[in-house]
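Help needed: design a sequence for this.
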């Protein structure tokens, strides 16, 4: 069995009303880079690479640089291919576009391997601990004509929080960091009042703060019983992470902008985070997820992945989480206490909700793990074509 074709698809989909977070104002559209790998005997696997920047550079990296290096290889040799591509790009890669590209290729190879063996990816990862995962609703973004108008936004975030509870979510994540700290805390207080005292609330600053401001914000979050404080400071400021974490009792989450086991090693040895959030489609794929998870476990750090992107990214995260043990084991794992949860962004996302022939939908606050071979999903290529701003990349 050999890899015979690799194609990339730089997808875009409109978001409707613009949304904002602290570092992206505005955030106008959804984008995603899908990778389709075919074998000489007709097996097709899908992957996704890159979550934050434009998809086109990742597509170019795969098309022009990485794909020619792995054509003709056995797609089941995932680790070997990963090491080969990483070693090739070490001098100029190690993060960003090159690791995004490797991530997309790696996920597609896991999909192929599962299909060849007739087994879901979670079984290749060691077998399932669960068949569905508690989902947390990411929402309450800044929005509207004037995202800085606090009074107008309080009612909107309260209504949004209520809608998530009505939809069955028990955990919500809100944005902070765009407004003065006191005003952002008002927004979270409004979310708390609307969502109820039995709702778990998380807060994500998207690295908006310097250290003293993060500590001030974090103390406010503690008073509002917020369960984690995500990306308080910039990802490269590891000493800042450490200072914030030492100064607060609220758990610190971070790592969605980090790459590979080597980047996460530095977060762990630096004592930077309680919860690591690798994005499987950016940090190195499913192969690297395994290594980051093992490393985190040995440092007593919990891993709850960042999830963005299309239905392919969601499926990859669900398989990884299906095969993730509770942290630590108990006879009755409790979501977000020791039982992992999955991020489920609630802004419009046709790339996630329309791209798969069988949509993955939340039920009673949980997302089902696809049970079919490989990633257990089927990409609807008609929808895929609609989301292409231009023609597909040339076959390699
Ligand atoms: Ca985040």
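Sure. Designed sequence:
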């Amino acid at each position: 069995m050999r890899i015979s074709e690799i194609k990339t698809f730089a997808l875009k989909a409109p978001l409707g009303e613009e949304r904002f977070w602290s570092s992206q104002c505005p955030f106008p559209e959804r984008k995603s880079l899908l990778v389709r790998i075919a074998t000489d005997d007709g097996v097709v696997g899908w992957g996704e690479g890159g979550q934050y920047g434009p998809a086109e550079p990742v597509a170019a990296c795969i098309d022009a640089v990485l794909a020619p290096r792995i054509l003709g290889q056995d797609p089941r040799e995932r680790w070997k291919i990963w090491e080969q591509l990483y070693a090739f790009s070490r001098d100029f890669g190690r993060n960003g576009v090159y690791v995004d590209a490797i991530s997309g290729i790696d996920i597609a190879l896991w999909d192929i391997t599962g299909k060849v063996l007739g087994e879901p990816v979670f079984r290749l990862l060691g077998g399932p601990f669960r068949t569905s995962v508690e989902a947390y609703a990411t929402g309450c973004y800044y929005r509207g004509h004037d995202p800085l108008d606090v009074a107008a936004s309080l009612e909107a975030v309260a209504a949004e929080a209520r809608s998530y509870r009505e939809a069955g979510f028990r955990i919500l994540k809100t944005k902070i960091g765009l407004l003065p700290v006191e005003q952002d805390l008002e927004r979270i207080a409004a979310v708390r009042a609307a969502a109820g005292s039995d709702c778990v609330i998380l807060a994500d600053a998207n690295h908006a703060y310097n250290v003293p401001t993060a500590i001030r914000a974090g103390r406010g979050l503690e008073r509002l019983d917020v369960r984690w404080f995500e990306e308080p400071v910039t990802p490269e400021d590891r000493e800042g992470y450490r200072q914030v974490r030492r100064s607060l009792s609220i758990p610190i989450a971070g790592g969605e902008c980090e790459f590979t086991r080597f980047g996460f090693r530095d977060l762990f040895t630096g004592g930077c985070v309680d919860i690591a959030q690798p994005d499987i489609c950016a940090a190195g794929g499913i192969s690297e997820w395994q290594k980051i998870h093992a490393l985190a476990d040995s440092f007593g750090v919990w891993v709850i992945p960042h999830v963005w992107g299309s239905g392919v990214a969601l499926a990859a995260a669900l398989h990884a989480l299906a095969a993730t043990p509770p942290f630590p084991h108990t006879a009755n794992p409790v979501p977000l206490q020791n039982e992992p949860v999955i991020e489920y962004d609630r802004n419009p996302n046709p790339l996630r909700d329309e791209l798969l022939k069988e949509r993955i939908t939340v039920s009673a606050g949980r997302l089902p793990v696809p049970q079919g071979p490989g990633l257990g999903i089927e990409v609807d290529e008609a929808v895929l074509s609609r989301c292409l701003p231009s023609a597909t990349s040339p076959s390699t």
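The chain has two domains: 3-119+380-386, 123-368.
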